Structure formats: structure tokens, C-alpha cells
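Team,

Forwarding the record for the chain on the shared tracking sheet. I've put the sequence and predicted structure together so nobody has to dig through attachments.
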Amino acid sequence: MTSRKPRRQNNHNPVNLTDYESDAPYYSDMQQQPAPPLRSNEELNLSVIRRHKPSVTSILSLAPYAVVYIFSPTTKQWEKNGVEGTLFVCQESQGDLGEERYTAFVLNRRGLNNFDLPLTDGENVEITDDYVILKAEESAEGEAGQNGIADPLHPQNVPNNQSGTNNVRIYGLWIYSEPPPNSTAESRTINAQMILDCATHAGESMKLARERLEAMRQTSLHLAAVAASSKAPPIEEIQSGVPMGRQISLKDLFGQQRAQDDGWSVRAHHLSPEQHQQQANYQQMMPHQMPSPTPPPQPQSDVLGDLFRRAGLAQQGNGQGH
């Protein structure tokens, strides 16, 4: 029986094919990507609000949950407006007159339309135990909201017979709050006071902006009146102000000659006594020095008639001589 030879172990490692480029680690894979910057809740809320209302510059206060009601003059009761969600009290960019602007914005959870009501005057805000009451003047009938914002002057789910004849709508914001120590315990008080303060400041800012505009208008009218009453510059100043090479109009030319003639007439009427005596002596000397005037020409005679008469006289003399 033949003994089996032990197998030789192959110590050579298998060769792996590679292109060296794809297997090389990339620098971008080795480098750790930086984490995205953290954004605060306020920045996130502001970015969301500005999608619906780009004029918003900052959020002054917010309430996690609020419901919008409208007062029905028919039933004399508060009825839901169809908008409920987070309430934001926001500051907007300045208006056309430079006035400060504020708004109460409710991001609706129950639909695509939001509630947006400008805060224009402190007299339009009233704080009660249940609601923050807001008064708004009604705009033209049939005007719809824009950019997904519910027109607070024409809210949804409101019958047509509820529109009053005085063009005023009354809204009530019910702000959710729980007893302490809950975090929403002061939510209604803080937001209600913020709405009142913003509305009061907006009304005062608008008043100052209108007074400033009226002062500017009065100043412009005064300057225009002063400019109109100012005297026209003299002719010498106008002529000296004409640049070289510029043509002078006939009005300027004859106006200058008329001014000179007027000056001569004034000087002639205001001669001194010595000048009057010299003028009289000059007029006395003039007849002696000046030659006598030539007599006026006599009327021309009839030349042809004289010639014929002379010729007839000559013929008569010759006949008498013969």
C-alpha cells in the first residue's frame, strides 16, 4: 500500500485585480460632512409665516391654539369663523407713509385659508374674560383673500344675511390657556395685551405719519408761493448771464433799446439849470451860423409851349422883313 503524499500548501496569496483608482478612498468620503445649522423655533415659525405673508419681519408673541369667532348681528351670538390654529402677533415692514404696521395672524389647521387682521388702532381692540374682541371695517363686497390668506372682512362659513349695514365686522379671538403650572397659563393674558399695545402704537404711528405728510405739503406750498412772488432779475443781469455765442432774441434786443430810450427821456426831463442855459445859448447861435434856407423850388414852366411860341414869333418877324 502506497503512502499518500501530503499536499503541499500553497502559501501564495491570490492576486486581486484592481484599477487602483476606484479602490482609492476619496477625500470627500473621509471628510465628515458638517451638520446643518440649528434653527430656533422662532426662526422656523417666522419662515412659515413669511410663506403666507412676506411683509412680516418679526413675531412678537404667539399662542399655541386659538379659535376665531365672528359676532352675528342676526342671532346676537358668537359663531365660529372656520379658522383655528396657532396665533401669531407679528410686526410688518413700514407702510407707504413710514408708519409702523402690526397684524394678528392665525395659521389655520382646518383649511388652507388663514386669518389675517391688521391692527390699526387701540380703539378697535377690547379685552374681555372670554375673547379678545377686534373690530374691522368691511371692504368692497366680493373681494377675496390673496396668497391663501382668508380675508377677515369676508370670512368663510358666514351667511350673507349677517353682513351689517354699517360696514363693520366684529371678531372674537378665543385663546386657549390652562391653569398653572401649565406653560399656557399666561398665554391668553400675554397675547391679549400684546395685541392691544400693537394696535395702540400703530394708531399713534399713523397719526404722526399723516401730520408729517401734511407739514411737508404745507412747506412745499409756502416755497412755491415765495418763488412766485419773487421779482424778476434786471435786464443787465439777464444780458450778463447770456453765454458767449448764444443768439439774443428780438424781445431781449428791443427790450434793451426801450430801456435806453426810457433812460434818455428821464435824463432830458431832469436837466440842471446850467444845462438848460447851455441849451438856450446853443439854440440862439444856430440861426447865425447856419446858412439861410434855400427857397422852395418854383413850379416848372411848359418848355414845349415856350419853344413853339418862340418859333412862331421868329417866323412872323421874317415875314415882316420880306
